[in-house]
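Supplementary Note 3. Input sequence used for the single-chain structure prediction.
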Amino acid sequence: MRTRTKLYAAAVGMATTGALVLSSGGASGHGYTDLPVSRQKLCQNGTVSNCGAIQWEPQSVEGPKGFPAAGPADGRICSAGNTGFAQLDAPKTPSGQAWPTTKVTGGQSYTFRWQFTARHATTDFKYYVTKPGWNQNHNLARSDLNLTPFLTVPYGSKQPPATLSHSGTLPSGLSGHHVILAVWTVADTGNAFYACSDVTF
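The predicted structure, written as discrete structure tokens, is reproduced below.
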């Protein structure tokens, strides 16, 4: 009996350790924008429903860095190439409605905000916006974007705080629905984090 009890205790201990490893691994990543509110945050807070796995991990939209020369493929930019987050790439929400937008004004200062669950050493943050006349009826592609960022915030390989805000001037001459693509480039891995936010100028 004593041997059987020891084996049972060891099995329980191993199962518990495994659960801890799994849970800590799931909690390790990473960051998203909530100003302007990103598609993943809209899914996480319930504004948009039926989003799939992204509703539980809005911080995990991670893909190869080097955008626009590298990074996620066209049509998969908003999900960072993660097939499990493909709902973020679609031009409409899973219910077929337009993505909710944040109202912004071109030529004026705007404060962007990131929330982090793991604070990696950071190269920079870059922000891109769609061009006038971009194709709103398909998944976002490089041809839709002005590939020169309208805002770059260098970060010198420092770790950001849990919440980080920085301000920049929004492009002028835009009207109607556009998408702002925010890219957080990590310094000490080969990856970056991507967030698409729908806005109305």
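The first helix runs from residue 2 to 26. The radius of gyration is 20 Å.
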